[in-house]
Write a structure and sequence with these properties.
alpha+beta; Beta-Lactamase; 3 domains; six-stranded mixed sheet; five-stranded antiparallel sheet; 15 helices
């Protein structure tokens, strides 16, 4: 719009006659030549300036302008071709421009992608409608854009028809719509069933597809005619759930439910109050996760666990029976073995310690009388422990009784035992071997005949109290039982003077480890025997076990431990 004091300029060509007339009579209104002198050459022209009349008043008068400038929306007033005639202050703010610059543009210039056809469409629509609504992207002077909702209507001003464009920035609304759309899509596509009920559990608010499927409902109308409590197997639980939610708490738990057709399922449920903007509770938000497969798996696990417990109880009962039988295999009393020569006194004393690492173990020993002055001592350590090792022990125990009747010579005894053992266990899928030793104590000859099948050599305590490993020559050493079916065993002789003590043991004792993974070993055993050498045989073995426990700082052994001490008390 032109300022009130501005001047309009026009160019007029003047003839010499007109110029002369103008010089002689000044024209009213202040018309003057654009110079002090007329042109000096014939036929020339001059330029005169004519002041413009008073500037046009703003369209619509002062009241209209006051209202126009106070409108919250940005407003453009255009002619029917879209040329902007006037804008309000809000438009300057919205479009980061000035009124002067905006009035140089067509409204189509600020609408991204708008063409002339848009105006034709608007004008056509306004013939039958009071206004037209448009949603478009608007372009600011700095080329940034914003989404807008635009209302277009006719506006008669100054006797002419204009168009008014009310532009509202809807950036925040668009952002909120996008968030709502994202949230809605998340609810619709959620794998969990989600619904909004009223405070009495009527599904009158919202039900997502997963909830429809979970409850066996085909349509939303069908869902909205239902009450959530009808799907609970225990409908009495509904009152507690509603009470908890009304108190402002979140109710969570696993529910046993039924679909519309009566089929059962299990769901992990979460219920929360649905609040309006004022914080008042208007309903209940229900979330269900189908956990039927997990629950069935849990039930199957519980069933399997119950079966396993029963099997374990049966196995433990069997193992306890095996333990009782295994202890029954051990000598309950020791045989009386003494010199059988007139005028000489002497007898054998016995003591043992047995500590299986489980209910049953793979270690055992036996004492088989041969004569009044002879006895066979047998000790074995079956590979592994538990029920399988106990079975091998039982087998060996049965073979001992039979073989002791056939031969008392330790080498021959071990040869026959190995052949029978190998034959029995040759068909087993796993190799089952056992270390063993057999010693014949003969008080009349004062000798020990020793045959060894890969077993730790016994410890000797000489009459003078010295402790050493028994020296067994090559003929008395052989492979473990079960490794070679045709192995031949011999024996070696060891002197047995009165006062001698022999300690047989299994490797569970010497291989016991402390926290530093150091083994008790033969050295620890030698040291312990020396420290307690004067003690009676039972006390000697108890002290040895105590020393091992102190070394390992444990109360149980990791492997089976079997000790048998034989002492020659005589003159």
């Amino acid at each position: 719009m032109a300022k009130e004091q501005s001047q309009a300029t026009m160019r007029i060509d003047i003839t010499p006659a007109m110029l002369e007339q103008l010089q002689q009579a000044p024209a009213p209104g202040g018309v003057r030549l654009a110079g002090r002198h007329a042109p000096s050459h014939p036929g020339g022209t001059g330029v005169i300036r004519i002041p413009a009349g008073p500037a046009a008043r703003p369209q619509g008068g002062e009241e209209f302008q006051t209202l126009f400038q106070s409108i919250y929306d940005a407003v453009f007033i255009t002619d029917p071709q879209g040329a902007i005639a006037s804008v309000n202050v809000r438009a300057e703010q919205f479009f980061a421009s000035t009124r002067t610059e905006l009035c140089k543009q067509n409204v189509l210039d600020v609408l991204c992608g708008a063409e002339r056809s848009l105006l034709n469409t608007i004008l056509g629509s306004l013939e039958n409608n009071r206004f037209v609504l448009i949603q478009a992207l608007c372009r600011r002077a700095d080329e940034t854009m914003f989404p807008a909702e635009i209302s277009v209507s006719r506006l008669p001003l100054g006797g002419k028809m204009h168009l008014s464009f009310f532009v509202r920035d809807i950036t925040l609304r668009k952002e909120q719509e996008e968030r709502l759309k994202t949230g809605y899509n998340a609810l619709q596509n959620s794998g969990s069933g989600i619904a909004v009920s009223d405070v009495e559990f009527a599904l009158a608010g919202y039900v997502n597809p997963s909830m429809q499927t979970l409850l066996g409902l085909e349509t939303l109308d069908e869902a909205y005619a239902c009450n959530f409590r009808q799907f609970l197997k225990d409908e009495a639980l509904a009152a507690d759930m509603i009470e908890a939610v009304k108190a402002g708490d979140t109710w969570t738990g696993e529910l046993e439910m039924k679909r519309k057709d009566g089929t059962a399922f299990f769901a992990q449920a979460s219920l929360e109050p649905n609040l309006n903007p004022d914080g008042a509770m208007t309903g209940i938000v229900i979330s269900l996760l189908d956990v039927t497969p997990q629950r069935h798996a849990q039930q199957q696990l519980e069933h399997t666990a119950a079966q396993l417990r029963q099997k374990n109880q049966e196995m433990e009962a069997d193992l306890r029976l095996a333990r009782d039988l295994q202890y029954a295999f051990l000598p309950s009393s020791y045989p009386a073995v003494a010199l059988d020569e007139p005028g000489k006194t002497g007898r054998l004393e016995f003591a043992h310690v047995y500590h299986p690492s489980g209910l049953v173990g793979g270690d055992f020993f036996d004492i088989l009388p041969v004569s009044k002055s002879q006895v066979l001592v047998f000790m074995a350590d079956v590979m592994g422990h538990g029920a399988r090792a106990a079975l091998v022990v039982a087998t060996l125990r049965g073979l001992l009784e039979q073989l002791a009747k056939e031969t008392q010579e330790p080498g021959e005894f071990m040869t026959r035992l190995n052949a029978a053992y190998s034959k029995i266990f040759s068909t087993a899928g796993d190799l089952m071997f056992a270390t063993a030793c057999c010693a014949c104590f003969d008080l009349n000859s004062g000798k020990i005949l020793h045959a060894n099948a890969g077993h730790p050599l016994p410890m000797l305590v000489d009459p003078d109290g010295s402790v050493r490993i028994a020296q067994v020559s090559e003929p008395g050493l052989g492979p473990a039982l079960g490794l070679f079916a045709d192995a031949r065993y011999g024996h070696a002789e060891i002197d047995l003077p009165p006062g001698t003590r022999v300690v047989f043991y299994t490797d569970g004792l010497t291989e016991a480890r402390n926290d530093s993974q150091q083994e008790f070993d033969v050295e620890g055993m030698t040291t312990s025997l020396r420290a307690h050498v004067a003690a009676p045989l039972p006390a000697l073995l108890d002290a040895l076990v105590r020393d091992v426990m102190d070394f390992t700082s444990a109360t149980v052994f990791e492997d089976d431990v079997c000790l048998l001490a034989v002492g020659y008390a005589g003159q």
